[in-house]
Amino acid sequence: MKDFLNRASEAYYSGNPIISDAEFDVLAAHFDYKSVGHTVTGGIPHYHRMYSLQNCFNISESPIPLKNCVETPKLDGAAISILYVGGILSLALTRGDGKLGRDITDKIATLVPLEIATPGVVQVTGEVMAPRSITNSRNFAAGSLNLKDLEEFKTRPLVFVAYDLIEHGFNEWTTAMKLLVLDGFNTVLDFDTKDYPTDGTVYRINDMAQFKKLGYTSHHPRGAFALKEQKEGVETTLLDVVWQCGKSGVISPVAILDPIKIGDAVVSKATLHNIEYINGLNLEIGCTVEVIRSGEIIPRIVRRVL
């Protein structure tokens, strides 16, 4: 299953996901999968590493005291880093694996200020966002960063929203965000996300000294986390697996289930992606499985129960 989740992670960050966010979260939690991003061949180092956020599905299990936190929407776009040197835009990189990214400076220069008042060397991190009215808006945003034609990129309805300013020297994170607004950025504190996709709520310690003192794990900062809604799955029996040919000509497995009701729909079939997915979940005819409706539409098996 690790190989499958590695492939799913790479597909996600390239803008072509093969499973939904909800499925990935369930599988990552079940198999204790910690890797984030994907290796970028010949990539460029981020000035400061880009970490992921620890996910939390129950606010009562918050890893940090909420009274010290600022609450903001968790953006669902394509994460990038932007480096300013002496106030001049010098480099913009895709997230990649958090350590190395791909140079997209020419594209990002059309979305953010070319000069800022903040001196020294600073890294602004945030997400390129597309309106939620666009189908698969996150994929659209990530895919746009892969375009070869700059003029085509300029026609895309994209915005950049910042959520951090590293090496700013301020005592509070909110002060850093206010500075970015003065420099001409949208920030997660002031940007109206009602027309843009979000994926939960971020809680972050505002006091920068306390945030830095907590430090980082190998994957995420200890001073922030993302509260996400965990979709409730429904258990049923896997009766059979059949193979069918889709419109694209790709043959894929489909689970035949003992009918169950999920939400307002009766579900008797679920997608299984491929044989690697089946083997990774250790599925067998007659076993008990947990099923969710991804995006409230597509039924999918996310784990074997018995």
Task: Please describe what this structure looks like.
- The protein is of the alpha+beta class and 306 residues long.
- It folds into 2 domains: 2-34 and 231-304, Nucleic acid-binding proteins (OB fold (Dihydrolipoamide Acetyltransferase, E2P)), CATH 2.40.50.140; 44-227, 2-Layer Sandwich (D-amino Acid Aminotransferase, Chain A, domain 1).
- The chain has 8 helices and 16 strands.
- The protein has a 5-stranded mixed beta sheet. The protein has a 5-stranded antiparallel beta sheet with strand order 14-13-12-15-16, with helices on one face. A 4-stranded mixed beta sheet has the order 2-11-10-3.
- Strand 12 and strand 13 form a beta hairpin.
- The radius of gyration is 21 Å and the shape is globular.
- The model has no long low-confidence stretch (mean pLDDT 87).
Topology:
Layout: H1 2-13, H2 21-30, E1 44-45, E2 54-56, E3 69-75, E4 78-85, E5 88-94, E6 100-101, H3 105-108, E7 121-129, H4 137-144, H5 150-154, E8 159-166, H6 173-182, E9 186-187, E10 198-205, H7 208-214, E11 224-227, E12 234-245, E13 251-262, E14 265-271, H8 275-280, E15 288-294, E16 298-304
Parallel strand pairs: 2-11, 8-9
Antiparallel strand pairs: 1-6, 3-10, 4-5, 4-7, 7-8, 10-11, 12-13, 12-15, 13-14, 15-16
